[in-house]
Amino acid sequence: MSSREPVLDEGVVRQQGGRVDLVVVAEMVAPGSRVLDVGSGEGELLDLLATTRGCDARGIELSREGVNAGVARGLAVVQGDADVDLAHYPDDAFDYVILSQTLQATRRPRWVLEQMLRIGRKAIVSFPNFGHWRSRLDLMIYGRMPVTDNMPIAWYETPNIHFCTIRDFVALVELLDARIEKAVALDSSGHRVRVNMPWWVWNLLGEQAVFLLNRKK
Question: Does the predicted TM-score (pTM) go above 0.90?
Answer without folding.
Answer: no
